[in-house]
Amino acid sequence: MTCGWNDAPPYDFVDWPQSWQSTLRAEHPAYDSGLSEADHNNGRLPEALRRWPGAVRSRHPDASFAALGTAAAELMADHPWDDPMARTALLHGWSPTAAGFFCSALPWTP
C-alpha cells in the first residue's frame, strides 16, 4: 500500500532562498521508515498498516510502500530511489494502474 511521508519537505523548497533551504535541512526531521507517519492525504489505512505488527515499509521517503505477509520483506527491499514505481509495476505481472492500488493486486498472507 502506498504510504508516502506526511512530514516531507514541500516539493518547491528547492526554489526557496538558500538560507531557508539550509534552515529546513538543519531543523527538519529526517525520514525514518519505522517512525515517519504515512501521508495523511492517502487516508487512514496506510498509517494503520504501517503501524501493524509485522508490517514492513520500504525506505523510499517520497513513495514508500508498506506490506504484510510472508513476502513483505522481499517486496519492500531494494526500492529504487530514481524510479520509485518501477518495481511495483512489475510485481506478479500487475501494474498499479491495472490493479487500482498496489495492495489489491497481491494476495494477503499474514
TrEMBL record:
Domain of life per record: Bacteria
GO biological process, one term: response to antibiotic
Similarity field: Belongs to the antibiotic N-acetyltransferase family.
InterPro entries, per the entry: Amioglycoside_AcTrfase, Antibiotic_NAT-like
PANTHER family for this protein: AMINOGLYCOSIDE N3-ACETYLTRANSFERASE (PTHR11104), SPBETA PROPHAGE-DERIVED AMINOGLYCOSIDE N(3')-ACETYLTRANSFERASE-LIKE PROTEIN YOKD (PTHR11104:SF0)
Record keywords: Acyltransferase, Antibiotic resistance, Transferase
Enzyme Commission (EC) number: 2.3.1.-
Protein name, UniProt field: Aminoglycoside N(3)-acetyltransferase
Major enzyme class: transferase
